[in-house]
Amino acid sequence: MFFSSDEELDSAPPSNLRRNRSICQTPMMKSSLRWRHQKLPPHVSPSFWILRRGCMYLCRQLFRSLSTSNPFLLLPSKPRWMHQRLRISKMISTASSGDTKKIVGVFYKANKYASKNPNFLGCVENALGIRDWLESQGHQYIVTDDKEGPNCELEKHIPDLHVLISTPFNPAYVTAERIKKAKNLQLLLRAGIGSDHIDLKAAAAAGLTVAEVTGSNVVSVAEDELMRILILMRNFVPGHQQIINGEWNVAGIAHRAYDLEGKTVGTVGAGRIGRLLLQRLKPFGHDRLQMEQELEEEIGAKHMENLNEMVTKCDVIVINTPLTEKTRGMFNKEMIGRMKKGVLIVNNARAAIMERQAVVEAAESGHIGGYSGDVWDPQPAPKDHPWRYMPNQAMTPHISGTTIDAQLRYAAGTKDMLDRFFKGEDFPAQNYIVKDGEIAPQYV
Amino acid sequence: MFFSSDEELDSAPPSNLRRNRSICQTPMMKSSLRWRHQKLPPHVSPSFWILRRGCMYLCRQLFRSLSTSNPFLLLPSKPRWMHQRLRISKMISTASSGDTKKIVGVFYKANKYASKNPNFLGCVENALGIRDWLESQGHQYIVTDDKEGPNCELEKHIPDLHVLISTPFNPAYVTAERIKKAKNLQLLLRAGIGSDHIDLKAAAAAGLTVAEVTGSNVVSVAEDELMRILILMRNFVPGHQQIINGEWNVAGIAHRAYDLEGKTVGTVGAGRIGRLLLQRLKPFGHDRLQMEQELEEEIGAKHMENLNEMVTKCDVIVINTPLTEKTRGMFNKEMIGRMKKGVLIVNNARAAIMERQAVVEAAESGHIGGYSGDVWDPQPAPKDHPWRYMPNQAMTPHISGTTIDAQLRYAAGTKDMLDRFFKGEDFPAQNYIVKDGEIAPQYV
Fold first, then answer.
1. Yes or no, beta carbons of A254 and B407 under 8 Å apart
2. Facing residue for A397 by CB, picked from B2, B249, B398
3. Which of A164, B228, B300, B316 has the fewest CB within 10 Å, making it most exposed?
4. DSSP track, B74-102
5. What is the ipTM of this complex?
6. Do B396 and A120 touch (CB under 8 A)?
7. Residues of A annotated as catalytic (active site), given as ranges
8. Known catalytic residues of B?
9. Who among A110, A237, A381 is closest to B251 (CB)?
10. Residue A166 and residue A174: Cα distance in Å, rounded?
11. What SS3 class is residue A343?
12. Chain A residue closest to B115 (CA)?
């Protein structure tokens, strides 16, 4: 539903919320969960995990009988294992004891747009739609978009906040330094997907829980990727530009517009988003290449072990891998040099996977025939970011995962995790990025 | 393939041509042909057509033995049936006698873009790539983009041209008046699809043959439609505009960006293009509505008899019907008023199917939430065309069917029809728009 009238929107949220939530129960999502479990490091067997969860359950029952309000302060210099254990104990005990929490949300400001759509939940003004619910339980809920520099609003609350919520669209960067200052911090929630705004090692060492609303925007991002592939392939942007400039020059567009049919598309990474993209590419009747073997049977895409080889074959390359130390700067001058001349690149994953200057130079030389994405390093992109001005780009601000539909999903998912946190319950397993001092393997 | 380097492009055309031609042999195309035959008026039974073709074959053999160079001039005042018969006779006789022809092609000028891509065939400079082939057979081939007004280049050649080729992107309007002047005219070829630039009744009355390269750009247009649906749904245009303006305001985009998943899309018309679109929409998992009953089983789309009812249910409406007297102005104020508030409309069919001012007013009031298409009335669109300046439009010049891939297909299809014309052979049946004084039923 995408009504823009207030009357119609008023009646829409409940059914939308129900429908969107059900996405997490599709076979696709279930298979994604299986996949995530299959990706555990070899030394962590599933049985080990089951066993450890059993232990955790017993620990939790034990800690529920205590109500130490701040064990961390009692033991400032502790060994790491104890630090973690005590953070966990704090989270559980304070949650179960009915303590009120200080929750800070960092979103983008919507200003005049905030009131245009009651489902527009992901902005400062509408604050995920959970203010009344939180405040009715006595929690303090502070929301801001002011997140940078030593005097920003976020910085003021770092020393005593318990929970920090942030979206990928105006991320609150959680550095080791901020984690050190945040003596009460227990939980870092991503309203959306991804964790590259957080120093995960520092978070794990400090025993924090980091979680996202897994699956909340995978459909939104996959659809957006297909749109960007088509926009680049069809040379849409200069065409539209002609229209608003009062011009008409078909040749200026048509000399480099192609059908997508018959082209070879590769995705680097085929997790939740990558496989949704591959499904949507299926009817276009072209070759698809990707890096996840198990998808071969499911979607009929050809698996390639070697990225260096894959990029030589693709007309279009889509980045669908998280930013990690392994993937940072992966698409450098050398990797781009291996690609076909005129390659189209779509990157809604993270900007730092690309080497910024290498992209600019290749776009200027024509080696990259088109580049589209919504991710920048840093965000918001400064006015002088060279990707704004390189040729044949179809960039936007970071928007692909913040459709109204996605906002309803990640607002509902964030609320659900807060609710479980207050009750001392586990989150859905697939949402954890850092738990009990361990980083989920795909983020290592 | 979409290489932009000259070296790589040089090696590309033959394989591309082979691949693209094979598209006409897909099951989809075959079923389209069946469909077209099923759509013959009830009084024209298939057996009648077979029989008539048998007669035609005998007539042709008879006429091959004659070589009247211009029977039309010998009998200036004739009954309609004789007029037609004689035009046919002329076409066959001159073709088989090895007479040379004056062929005029009207395309768009590419200027500096013409040399950028050797497969960029649809422009004046590259002239479908058939100049050498035509001239080696002694035919005269004149190409221009100057097609309007009494002193234009086209007008000079009207009196003595035999064949007029035109694309939909810079159409040569063939009025009854021009047909009257064109005493030698036998064949009107559309390099591409569609015939609304021709007064078909006048062409039929004059016994002209009108044909298109059926199927040559259906994939291109269907892909482009999906792109436009996504561009409107995701509010892409203002997002990109922010980037090139040095801005960053996620809220300005996100407050009206939606997922396509779960929305209801309807196509008005489900011929070749419409059904390719429906196939491509299938993995998006939303409701699709359209008007062709037989597609229900094939693609799982729901058929609706009544357009007035269909438009009330759609979040997105795609126009995929030819412009005829029945469809001209079909989407007027009343029809748009029936649609959901905020409806998205994609129209790559023909602009005159919409009532121009009704679209502007509905876009300004917000009743139409977004309008995208590449068709205008007239073309090129004048600088002051209001669709250039209405809100939430994602318009381009007429480009959706002129990708490099489509150009290869329609250049090959045009050459094939010219070759058959010179040899006195029939065209592929599905290409005829007017034949033997009869207009194909879907254009009536």
1. yes
2. B249
3. B300
4. H-SS--HHHHHHHHHHHHHHHHHHT---E
5. 0.71
6. no
7. 217, 350, 379, 398
8. 217, 350, 379, 398
9. A110
10. 10
11. strand
12. A255
Q: Give the Cα separation of B39 and B32 in Å (integer).
A: 11
- Tell me the shortest Cα–Cα distance from A400 to chain B, in angstroms: 8
Return per-residue pLDDT of chain A as tens, 444 residues.
222 222 222 223 223 322 222 222 222 323 332 223 333 233 322 222 222 223 333 333 333 333 333 322 222 233 343 344 334 434 443 444 458 999 999 999 999 999 999 899 999 999 999 999 999 999 999 999 999 999 999 999 999 999 999 988 888 999 999 999 999 999 999 998 878 889 999 999 999 999 999 888 889 999 999 999 999 999 999 999 999 898 888 889 989 999 998 888 888 887 888 888 988 988 887 666 665 556 666 666 677 778 999 999 899 999 998 888 889 999 999 999 999 999 999 999 999 999 999 999 999 999 999 999 999 998 888 999 999 999 999 999 888 888 888 888 888 888 899 899 999 999 999 999 999 999 998 777
User: Which run of H or of E encompasses B251?
Assistant: helix B250-254
Tell me whether residues B342 and A5 touch, CB distance under 8 A.
yes
> Cα(B345)–Cα(B353) distance, rounded to whole angstroms?
12
Looking at the partner chain, which of B235, B239, B399 has a beta carbon nearest the beta carbon of A253? Answer: B399
Give the nearest chain B residue to A233 (CA atoms).
B2
Is A315 in contact with B231 (Cβ distance < 8 A)? no
Gap between the Cα atoms of A228 and B230, Å rounded: 9
B interface mutation test: which of A120, A237, A243 has the most B CBs within 10 A?
Answer: A243
